[in-house]
């Protein structure tokens, strides 16, 4: 599902954030991306989400070589990638419903389908009763669950998360991980960047570890 072949990423300031990276994630696999701060984890996820492009090497996602994807196709490609961030990037002047609906509105879905899908996504994260609430009135864990509902509302085959439990206590972090596991169980490929060793050690999933932009020997 996700394949890196000898990938390098050099930023415009010439800093090489990723060097000679090769690995594969299978369809339906769940894995952690670990490594020290500055190791290149966010950069790697950005290459998959096409927020950044590789400087050299191939990134292939869902049988698409991202280096060959024309610019106009990027918005369509992104709909197939769910993204969850540490600070969840919710809009505070909109309700929970409207936040989760955003990707569907951008995709031009009809009103009825939006209502149905938003409620299905909120139901999956256990927040159906909060659809009229504003994010500011929710706890940190609930806000993160809204972020996850928004990421999966398009039913993407790939779900990427960048330090999704960074601001949460251990109990809430485990709840968030349980949600990712649920999505993985219905076939979604899940890739989670995290430096929370304690949390990762409790879970049976594969780890891909970066060390200064290179794959660490495990
Ligand atoms: P991690 O997520 O593992 O903390 P990042 O991918 O955020 O690592 O960063 C990897 C390295 O690339 C860091 O040294 C960081 O300073 C550098 N970096 C990240 N983004 C940029 C950018 N836009 N321009 C230049 N350097 C960057
Ligand atoms: P529909 O009612 O159109 O079938 P739902 O959103 O209710 O749509 O999802 C149907 C099933 O698909 C659920 O069991 C759900 O867990 C699963 N599913 C498959 N892929 C995803 C995904 N990427 N995100 C969320 N759910 C998914």
Automatic annotation (TrEMBL):
GO biological process, any: cell division
Keywords: ATP-binding, Cell cycle, Cell division, Cell membrane, Membrane, Nucleotide-binding
Membrane association type: Peripheral membrane protein
Single annotated GO MF: transmembrane transporter activity
Major place of residence: membrane
GO cellular component entries: plasma membrane
Subunit record text: Homodimer. Forms a membrane-associated complex with FtsX.
Family: Belongs to the ABC transporter superfamily.
Function per UniProt: Part of the ABC transporter FtsEX involved in cellular division. Important for assembly or stability of the septal ring.
Record's protein name: Cell division ATP-binding protein FtsE
Organism: Methylophaga frappieri (strain ATCC BAA-2434 / DSM 25690 / JAM7)
């Amino acid at each position: 599902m996700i394949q890196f072949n000898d990938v390098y990423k050099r930023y415009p300031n010439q800093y090489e954030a990723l060097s000679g990276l090769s690995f594969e994630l299978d369809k339906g696999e769940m894995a952690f991306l670990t490594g020290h701060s500055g190791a290149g984890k966010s950069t790697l996820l950005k290459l998959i989400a096409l927020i950044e492009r590789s400087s050299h090497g191939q990134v292939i996602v869902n049988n698409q070589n991202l280096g060959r994807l024309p610019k106009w196709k990027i918005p369509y490609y992104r709909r197939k990638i769910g993204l969850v961030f540490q600070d969840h990037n919710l809009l505070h002047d909109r309700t929970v419903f409207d936040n989760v609906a955003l990707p569907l509105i951008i995709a031009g879905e009809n009103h009825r389908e939006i209502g149905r899908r938003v409620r299905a996504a909120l139901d999956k994260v256990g927040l159906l009763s909060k659809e009229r609430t504003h994010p500011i009135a929710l706890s940190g864990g609930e806000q993160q669950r809204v972020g996850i509902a928004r990421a999966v509302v398009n039913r993407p085959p790939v779900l990427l998360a960048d330090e999704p439990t960074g601001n949460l206590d251990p109990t809430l972090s485990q709840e968030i991980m349980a949600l990712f596991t649920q999505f993985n169980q219905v076939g979604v490929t899940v890739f989670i960047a995290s430096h929370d060793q304690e949390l990762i050690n409790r879970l049976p999933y594969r780890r891909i570890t970066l060390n200064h932009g290179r794959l660490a020997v495990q």
